[in-house]
Design goal:
mainly alpha, membrane, two-stranded antiparallel ribbon, 24 helices, globular, cell membrane, about 65% helix, about 500 residues, GT87
Length: about 500
């Protein structure tokens, strides 16, 4: 019977190490001693790969907080321009007073002064914001706003640790892929701009539950994530199509019921007792005009023509539905059933690319999905470089628009280039994911013989419905005909020619 030490060694050998497969990871490891540095033996006895990934993620989050120091110390409180030129803007301190938390107003139930009327965030995010407000100590308004940002940063740091751990554990044999999340520069830069990490953490936990064949828990977490942000509900689409191909309808039913139930548990009390406040998020999303970061903004700025909001909503919805349908067809015709993480990344990327607004923190939605869908450092870093350039571009553009005659910052044409870079970077990563689906032998995750480590009950399942079966049966008939005898074709002179 093997000892615990032998089992540990066997498990360590079973883990896929990116420094032995990825040339960029191998080159980067030289900074810490190469593929197996002098601290490797000591580190393996102190930290597991998951623990190491979590610590790195927390460290990078802390560096992101340090990057916000100019704003924390003074720029948030001395006009708009400085927080843009220092690229340290955050919604959190401004909305503390702007959404009534400083005055003790209750989200969704108490009407706000001004045009906003009610908090424009989903219910679970509103609860998160309110809890942080309860934990914020008193003092001057500036001191309260600083403390509110710190309290939220602490809560969002917990979300970051959850994300890192869940991503590292989703692919059992690839825990080090979590470093893609932990070391993502766009993650550190955007983590404390808004409250998106709550939904991202719940979504990452849902992905982990799906990989562990727990569809009901997956659905419950997706429902909670959707109660914090709208995009996680999109993951039910890939689950549906993959379960269709594998014939696992019971598992999808459990996921769908779990999602609907948990979403209702969170939303129903507010829907009943504060219906106007509850629907503000949805009406605001529908009525919101074309905003920063979208290709719609580039079109309107380049042409000088405005586009009606209803037209944008209709076209965006139709294009999103059409592209998601194309992803569904791809899933049902691919030579091998795609991995769940690949499809999850694609549908969320489609939503982001077509949307009428792209706030810089939206990149957080994609980072964990990208790490699971395409765990290759070169492709990931190309995309991250585009996102960091967009992060700098939007703040420099806002600095330009708020600097008056000084024209400090990035002019409109430069900002449009930043938007295009963001779009191209995301499209590039989508393209390599689609290539891996069409050519599964190029997929890093499957090189060790794995099927779908993030797929749970779908991992290794037989296909029961594939649209390509007609093509396959046609090929089989041709093979059978050839086996019966030589195929006769007609030559150019009109005489039969044996093949």
């Amino acid at each position: 019977m093997p000892s615990a030490e032998d089992t540990s060694v066997h498990q360590e050998r079973a883990d896929v190490r990116p420094t032995h497969q990825d040339e960029v990871a191998a080159a980067g490891s030289e900074l810490i001693g190469g593929r197996s540095g002098r601290w490797a033996r000591l580190g393996s006895t102190v930290l597991t790969p998951v623990g190491a990934v979590a610590l790195v993620a927390i460290g990078m989050f802390a560096l992101g907080m340090v990057q916000k120091l100019p704003c924390y110390n003074w720029a948030w409180f001395r006009g708009a321009g400085s927080q843009y030129t220092h690229a340290c803007y955050s919604d959190i301190p401004h909305l503390y007073s702007g959404r009534g938390f400083a005055d003790g107003l209750v989200p969704y139930f108490d009407r706000l002064p001004g045009d906003m009327q009610f908090l424009e965030y989903p219910v679970l995010t509103g609860v998160f914001m309110q809890v942080a407000a309860w934990l914020t100590p008193g003092g001057s308004l500036q001191e309260q706003e600083q403390a509110y940002w710190l309290v939220n940063a602490g809560m969002l740091m917990i979300c970051t640790a959850v994300i890192a751990v869940c991503v590292a554990r989703t692919h059992r044999r690839r825990p080090w892929d979590g470093l893609l999340v932990a070391l993502a520069p766009a993650f550190a830069l955007t983590a404390t701009i808004n409250w998106d990490l709550l939904a991202v953490a719940l979504t990452a936990a849902a992905m982990l539950m799906w990989s562990r064949s727990r569809p009901l828990a997956f659905g419950i977490l997706i429902g909670l994530a959707t109660a914090a942000k709208l995009y996680p509900v999109l993951l039910l689409g890939p689950a549906f199509v993959l379960c269709w191909r594998a014939g696992r309808w019971r598992q999808f039913g459990a996921a769908a019921l779990g999602a609907a139930g948990s979403w209702l548990v969170v939303n129903l009390p507010v829907m009943i007792f504060a219906p106007e406040g509850w629907k503000k998020f949805y009406t605001f999303s529908q009525e919101r005009s074309i905003d920063f970061g979208s290709f719609w903004l580039v079109i309107t700025q380049r042409t000088g023509d405005s586009i009606d909001v209803s037209t944008v909503n209709t076209v965006s919805t139709l294009v999103t539905v059409g592209l998601c349908a194309a992803i569904g067809v791809l899933t049902l015709t691919a030579p091998r059933r795609p991995r769940f993480a690949q499809l999850a990344f694609l549908v969320v990327a489609v939503f982001i690319l077509v949307n009428k607004v792209y706030s810089p923190q939206y990149v957080l939605w994609l980072i964990p999905l990208a790490a699971l869908a395409k765990p290759r450092w070169r492709d990931f870093l190309i995309w991250q470089a585009c996102e960091v350039l967009y992060f700098l571009g939007i703040w420099m553009y806002l600095a330009y628009t708020t600097s008056g005659d000084k024209h400090q910052g990035l002019p409109t044409e430069g900002y449009q280039l930043a938007i295009v870079l963001h779009l191209l970077g995301t499209l590039y990563l989508c393209a390599v994911v689609v290539r891996d689906i069409l050519m599964p032998e190029r997929d890093e995750v499957r090189r060790d013989g794995s099927d779908d480590p993030s797929g749970g009950v779908l991992d290794g399942a037989e296909d029961v419905f594939v649209l390509a079966h007609l093509v396959e049966s046609g090929a089989a008939r041709r093979d059978a005909a050839e086996a019966e005898g030589p195929r006769v074709e007609w030559g150019s002179a009109g005489a039969p020619a044996a093949d």
